[in-house]
Design goal:
The complex is a heterodimer of chains A (171) and B (145). Chain A contains 3 helices and 8 strands; from the N terminus they run H-H-E-E-E-E-H-E-E-E-E. Chain A is of the alpha+beta class. In chain A, strand 7 and strand 8 form a beta hairpin. Chain B has a single domain, classed as Roll (Thiol Ester Dehydrase, Chain A). Chain B is built from 3 helices and 8 strands. In chain B, strands 1-2-6-7-8-5 form a 6-stranded antiparallel β-sheet. In chain B, strands 3-4 form a two-stranded antiparallel ribbon. The chains are: A alpha+beta (171), B alpha+beta (145). Chains A and B meet through helix 2, strand 3, helix 3 and strand 5 of A and helix 2, strand 3, helix 3 and strand 5 of B.
């Protein structure tokens, strides 16, 4: 058997991390909130490091409901974009050097987003993971779960519907 | 809360609302109006300059909370139980966004709120919201279902 030599691990990591970073850099509001993403293979975990400007109730204190909603929505949008980007990126059709703000696929557009607030967000880091329940040619349905200290004790969850950007209409 | 400076202090006391530059324009009797200037830091898609859905949802959430607290019956605090936001159209870059919320029914423990967000075009809203909020500190029987 004549197998091609596997790609060096550093090249794979560099390509994936560069694409992910460009994706996140493309959302100024995500930068403003301080949202980061951890990656294990194709699995993403969003991280929201706590800071005082995220507080909505200074007496508890608790994270602002709007921040929680924005954090979950950003997680859903990045997960969806990431999944749409993945095949193209792995097939080598996406030139890593050309993956920057100007050359990324268009972001999905939110149609609706429903957040279920289960507990107040404590003044500490929050994490979130999104699951794409359906991704069709035009619409996608995404569920997101967010937690703080314990993965099993969610402080919020959300479901949203998104308009999937066209693959061949300018990106 | 009829004194506008007291109303603005409500916003100033919420660190994230202050960070987003929200201005409480009117509040009372279960209604609230809060606006926020366009800012490039709050953009969701730099290709279009359209403000992030997350920033609009923070504005709508704050406005709904203010409407709940201004409702008759003396709630001392509130928290969002659930909030659904429908995005009708992209907000125009550079334009101020104004949210209007109405607490249309409340019980001793729960308030039901709806809200809209407009840019400077008062026609079709940018987004609408509907949610349920907790009511804290309302004594028994003061405002029954």
């Amino acid at each position: 058997m004549n197998r091609p030599k596997p790609e060096p691990v550093q090249a794979v990591k560099q390509r994936r991390d560069a694409a992910l970073l460009a994706l996140i850099d493309g959302i100024p509001y995500a930068q403003y909130l301080g949202v980061r993403f951890d990656r294990r293979g194709d699995e993403l975990t969003a991280v929201l490091p706590f800071n005082e400007s995220l507080v909505g109730n200074p007496f508890l204190p608790a994270i602002h409901g709007g921040v929680t909603s924005a954090f979950l929505e950003i997680t859903a949008i990045i997960e969806l974009s990431w999944s749409l980007l993945w095949d193209e990126m792995e097939a080598g059709k996406l030139d890593p050097a050309a993956v920057d703000r100007e050359h990324l696929p268009r972001l999905p557009k939110t149609i609706d987003f429903t957040v279920d607030y289960l507990r107040s967000g404590l003044p500490r880091d929050a994490y979130a993971r999104a699951r794409i329940n359906r991704s069709g040619r035009r619409y996608a349905s995404v569920h997101v779960e967010a937690w703080q200290d314990n993965r099993a004790r969610l402080f919020a969850q959300a479901t949203g519907h998104f308009l999937v950007p066209g693959r061949n209409n300018g990106g | 809360m009829t004194d506008p400076s007291a109303a603005q202090r409500f916003i100033e006391a919420i660190p994230h609302s202050r960070a987003l530059g929200m201005v409480l324009e009117a509040v009372g009797d279960g209604h609230a109006r809060i606006s926020m200037a366009w800012d490039e830091r709050f953009v969701g898609d730099p290709a279009t300059g359209v403000i992030s859905g997350g920033a609009v949802s923070a504005l709508l959430d704050t406005c709904c909370g203010a409407a709940v607290l201004s409702d008759a019956g003396g709630a001392t605090g509130t928290a969002t139980l659930d909030l659904r936001i429908d995005y009708m159209r992209a907000a125009r870059p550079g334009q101020r966004i104004t949210a209007r919320a109405e607490c249309y029914h409340s019980t001793r423990t729960v308030a039901f709120v709806r809200a809209t967000a407009h840019d400077e075009d008062e026609g079709l809203p940018v987004a609408t919201a509907a949610g349920a909020f907790t009511i804290e500190g309302r004594s028994n029987g003061e405002k029954a279902t």
